[in-house]
Amino acid sequence: MTETPHAYHGVRSFDELLDVKYGPAGSPARLEFEARSEAFRTGEMLKEARRQAKLTQQQLADRTGTKKSYISRIENGHTDINLATLRRIVTQGLGRRVSLSIE
């Protein structure tokens, strides 16, 4: 979706901005943005927890039976991660637990 500089005129909320930039909720472009955004947030949380644990990506990968490149892709938001794998990385690799909520 291409927008002009004037496209943001009158936008008052983040949701309105998303509507202008990616289309209404449920549209293909908006769903793609939301999926990428979620992957980015998950990766940032994992990266911060790993750094707090003073582990390298390689050390975390070794602890969890994954590859450093996979940990890197997660942290950079370039791959989707299933819940079971995330739990394994967090519990086995970081000694922490995952909290999940449905809103």
SSE blueprint:
Elements (H helix, E strand, L loop, with lengths): L13 H9 L5 H25 L4 H8 L3 H8 L7 H12 L9
Helix pairs in contact: 3-4, 3-5
| Proportion of residues in β-strands | under 5%
Number of DSSP helical runs: 5
What's the oligomerization state?
single chain
Structure class = mainly alpha
- What low-confidence regions span 5 or more consecutive residues with pLDDT below 50? none
CATH class: Mainly Alpha
The largest pleated sheet is described as: none
Give the terminus-to-terminus CA distance.
28 Å
Helix content: 55-70%
On the 0-100 scale, what is the average pLDDT?
A: 90
Number of domains: 1
Rg of Cα set: 17 Å
Report on the structure:
The chain is mainly α. The chain has one domain (13-94): 434 Repressor (Amino-terminal Domain). The chain is 60% helix and 0% strand. It has five helices and no strands. Helix 3 (57-64) packs across helix 4. The longest helix is centred in the middle third of the chain and has 25 residues, at 28-52. The protein is elongated, with a radius of gyration of 17 Å.
